[in-house]
Amino acid sequence: MAVDLGRYGIWRFAGGLSPELAAELEALGFGAVWIGGSPPGDLELAESLLDATSTLTVATGIVNMWTDDADTVARCYQRIAAKHPDRFLLGVGIGHPEAQQTYTRPYDKIVEYLDQLDAAGVPVEGRVLAALGPKVLRLSGERTAGAHPYLTTPEHTRQAREILGAGPLLAPEQKVVLDTDPERARAIGRPAVRYPYLMLVNYVKNLRRLGWSEEDIADGGSDRLIDALALHGDAETVAAGVTAHLDAGADHVNIQVLTEEGADPLPAYRELAKVLR
C-alpha cells in the first residue's frame, strides 16, 4: 500500500487532537495518528493535522457509514489526497447497532458503501475497514487495504491474520495505562472499556468468540479482561504488550493511551516513544 503507517501510531478521540499535538507525535517518531470515535466526514480535522506535519500519516478510526454519505466523504478524501499524497488513510465502518435506529443488514450496508467509494474514485489502497468478525475481516482484505480492529487482543490479531492472509494491512487498536499500580490502572482502564463497549453487542460477541466468559464480561469486566484490553505497567511492560500484536501478525498498532481525566497524555507518549524506537 502507498500509505506508510510505520509500526506504531497513536489513537485518540477527535476532541483530544490538535495540530500542535500531531507535530509533537511526529517528532517523537510515531508513524500515524488515528482520529478516533466517529470523526466528521468533512475530514477537516485530518487536513489540519496533515497541514501541521510533514511525514506523519493521519487515519480515521472510523468515519461512520450511517452518518456520512460516501459521495461527500469521497470528495473530501480527494481534496486531502491531492494536497497530501500518500499521507491519509480513510478508515470507514458501520459503528454499532445501538447507535442507529435505521441500522439494518450491516454487511449489505458496508458493501454498498464500498461500491459507492469505488464509483467516486477512492482507491482500495487508500481505505481500511473497521472489522472484528470473520466475514467483515475477509471483506476488508478483498475490498480495502485491510482491517482496523478495535478493542481486541493479540489472540484476535492472530486469528485476523489467518483470515486475511499475508497481504492486507492489519492495524489493531490497543488501550494502555502507564501505571505500575494495578488498582489505580484498572480504575482508569475499566471505565474506558465498560462504557460503552461492554454494553454493545458487536464487541461483546467478539469477546465471546475469543473465549471470554459471561463472568469476565459482566459487571464492568473482570480484572483479567480489563488487564488484557487496557494493558498497564511501566513503559517497557506496556511496549511488550503492544509488540505482541506485531508478533501475532499485525503490521501496525495504534495505541490509545488512557490517563486520569484531564491529565496531559504527552508524558506517556514520550515514555513509550523511547522504548518503542
From TrEMBL:
| Matches recorded under InterPro entries | Bact_Lucif_Oxidored, Lucif-like_OxRdatse_MSMEG_4141, Luciferase-like_dom, Luciferase-like_sf
What GO molecular function annotation could you give as one example from this UniProt entry? Answer: oxidoreductase activity, acting on paired donors, with incorporation or reduction of molecular oxygen
Domain of life from the UniProt record: Bacteria
Gene Ontology CC annotation, any one: cytosol
In this chain the Luciferase-like domain maps to 20-252
Do you know which Gene3D superfamilies this protein is assigned to?
Luciferase-like domain
SUPFAM superfamilies recorded: Bacterial luciferase-like
Coiled coil ranges (UniProt) are none
NCBIfam families assigned to the protein according to its UniProt record, in alphabetical order: F420_MSMEG_4141
Q: What is this protein called?
A: Probable F420-dependent oxidoreductase, MSMEG_4141 family
